[in-house]
Amino acid sequence: MTTKNRPADCCLSxxxxxxxxxxTRAATVGVFKALGDATRFEIFRFVAAQEEPIxxxxxxxxxxxxxxxxxxxxxxxxxxxxxxxxRRGVWAYYAVDLQGLRQIxxxxxxxxxxxxxxxx
Length: 120
Fold this sequence. Notes:
Elements: H1 22-35, H2 38-48, E1 54-55, H3 56-62, H4 67-79, E2 83-88, E3 91-96, H5 98-109
Antiparallel strand pairs: 1-3, 2-3
Helix pairs in contact: 1-4, 2-4
C-alpha cells in the first residue's frame, strides 16, 4: 500500500478499523453471503417473523421455488448460524437462531464510528 502526501486542508486522516480475528471475519462474511441472495434473504425474514418454529412445507408453499431449492437455502442459512433446524418425523422445522440475530446486530453496529466522532 502506498502512502501519498495529503494536502494540508484536505480532511482528517481516515480511521482504520480494528483487525478482526480470521474466524470472526470468516463468520461475518458467511452471514453476508447467506443474506446476499434475494430469495434467501426473504426466506430468512419469513422464518425470523415466526413466533414458533415453522414447518418446511409452509416455507415451500410461500416461495416460488422448488423444495430442493428451499432445502439448499435453508442449509446455507443454517451454516451461517442464522437459523436452526429440528426434525419431527419426516418434517424439518426452522427457527431463527437468536445468536445469529445478535451477530447481525453486532456486525452492523461495528460499522459506525464511535459516537464521540460522529458530527451532530
